[in-house]
Design goal:
196 residues, alpha/beta, five-stranded mixed β-sheet, two-stranded antiparallel ribbon, 5 helices
Length: 196
């Protein structure tokens, strides 16, 4: 009887360990494939399950840049469309996102970031104070605006970080790069903007 109980306990531990290893492997594979993005943010989170799908609009290439109220670094509220008028890269970042940090680190070097008439604007879905604390800690090389109401997330479906939208002088979204796929054609696009 003792051998049977010992065998059952050993089998149970092996099964639990096996399930744990399987779970870690599945999560790791999903993260490496870029299919899952884990958002780490401070402050209140939002539950997309309560957002009506009728109110979610995915911005596509060719659409106008959304006119959303965002909070400028100085605390004033501005319409996002007011930033248009020059070629622009809109960078959606969130604190705690390693790929976001990598992009910020790269652009901190003036030789690596777009020059000329290309405006870079960051948008972070946190309140103004948390956004500016993040901008200070990260030594953000571009102005970081706050989207405290999470409008870009909840209404315009921005959920991969970092995401970068190319927006032309007329306010038309010309390119969209999301999450880990930023590298595909991104450098060529930025070079073409700078040469224009």
């Amino acid at each position: 009887m003792v051998d049977a109980n010992k065998s059952l306990v050993q089998w149970s531990w092996r099964a639990i360990l096996g399930l744990g290893v399987l779970l870690v492997a599945v999560v790791f594979a999903g993260v490496m494939a870029g299919g899952w993005v884990v958002e780490q943010r401070q402050g209140p989170s939002h539950d997309l399950s309560v957002v009506s799908t009728e109110t979610i609009t995915t911005v596509r290439v060719g659409d106008l840049f959304p006119d959303v109220d965002i909070v400028a670094p100085d605390g004033g509220v501005v319409g996002a469309v007011s930033l248009c008028g020059v070629d622009m890269l809109v960078v959606f970042v969130v604190e705690g996102c390693e790929p976001c940090g990598n992009l910020v680190d790269e652009w901190r070097d003036p030789a690596s970031r777009p020059r000329g008439d290309v405006r870079i604007v960051g948008i972070c879905s946190q309140d103004h104070m948390a956004t500016q604390e993040y901008a200070g800690k990260a030594a953000m090389p571009f102005p970081l605006f706050a989207d405290p109401e999470h409008v870009f997330n909840e209404t315009y479906n921005v959920h991969s970080y970092p995401s970068v939208w190319g927006v032309d002088r007329d306010g038309v979204v010309t390119h969209i790069w999301e999450g880990r796929r930023i590298g595909a054609g991104f450098d060529d696009y930025v070079d073409a903007l700078v040469r224009r």
